[in-house]
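Researcher: First entry.
Model:
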Amino acid sequence: MKKYTYTEKKDTRSGFGAGLSELGKTNPNVVALCADLTGSLKMDAFAKDHPERFFQIGIAEANMIGIAAGLTIGGKIPFTGTFANFSTGRVYDQIRQSVAYSGKNVKICASHAGLTLGEDGATHQILEDLGLMKMLPGMTVINPCDYNQTKAATIEIAKHEGPVYLRFGRPTVPNFTPPDQKFEIGKAVMLNEGTDVTIFATGHLVWKAIEAGEQLAALGISAEIINIHTIKPLDNAAVLTSAKKTRCVVT
């Protein structure tokens, strides 16, 4: 089992904020919109450095998506920011009609995804966001695993023409991927080659998969661990190749 280590734990939402800040300095077409959660989404640096390109929409998420779609017509690359529940479930009609079906170049960036926001209760939790977004035509869905990968993904999606759903979270998780990594949309990352079982993991659960692999190795079980950071388009070749090799899959 390949050994992975980390020096610190960091929240993936801060990786998004760092990536957005860097984009603000390098790409004048990048604009940012937030629904009253600038601090929670770590969009503060972008807002401070580029006030003319930052739009605080307030608690009006549907309006935010509509404005973002309109900005693309003028050649802008809008990044919207709010919690995952409000980025998808609350505004699904606007995303479906104004962004996905019309192929608008909007980057929907969602923090506090999944069940990680336990203290805020069920109204702020969502698991079905991945299913909702991957069903939409032309929508790319990305769920990076740590701070470094989230920063790299944020920078990369600005180059991608078309709508993107970028999912990240609030909790701190081990930051173990390289800071200078090349992020490839739709390309799974092999973390450990194995022969007995394949573990496909995404987002915060990638590190848990590594820990599981170490425990299995202690029992003499060889686990292949693959980071599926892109849910759509799925790396079908990586999935099928590994499944055929180990003939046992855990997701």
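Researcher: Second entry.
Model:
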Amino acid sequence: MASKLSLFLGNALRSSTSTSLPSIGRMVPPLKNLCTTSEADADAGSSSSSTTTVSAEDQKGSGTDLIFAKLYPAKKHTLKTDVIHFLEGCNLSTEDIKVEYNRDYNPIAMTLQFSSHSAFDAAVRAVVRKGRLYRLEKVFTVNSDQWDLMESFNGKVVLLQGLPINASMEDIDRFLNGCSITDIRTFVRPGFPDPTKSALVRFPTIHEAMNAFRIKNHGFILNNPIGMQVLQ
């Protein structure tokens, strides 16, 4: 009887041991899977880091990446800051915008300098997204050297139109009394039935120019109404 009991207990113990070992083995992940997961994470991290670096470099741009474009239509009283706000996020400053005028100082177009292809593409998307109020076209006839030669008034020059032909410098000085001025240049253009006289007045700062425009616009010189325009 005792020998049968011992035999029964031995068989039970061996059975318990053999059934528990496989479950322990299933709890341990294969070594190969662990290595694969680690390598995949490392590759993903490397790829993410590389993408971020390229994006940062593209945003920064370089001298050879400069893109020039024209923005139409250029309106008479549109400021450079208006364009910067319209194309917000395109990395533009007032130094990146120059306005082209005809001989009568009516604006023709705005020439823009973008720091990279991605900045130009962002501007195109902004124009489309905001209802195509402007037309933006890339130009290939402008390079960095030509850009430097393009005239820019930088918002510090005000055009006075409608001056009487006999208006003198003293008359213009009286009209601009209280304003800080650095230079005045008058010119006469042929007109019908009479020639027209205008003046370019330069101010030391943009603030001074805008202040003169707000206070003096539509004033009078020798009973002639004077129109003023801040040149960009």
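Model: Note on the second entry: The domain at 63-149 is CATH 3.30.70.330 (Alpha-Beta Plaits).
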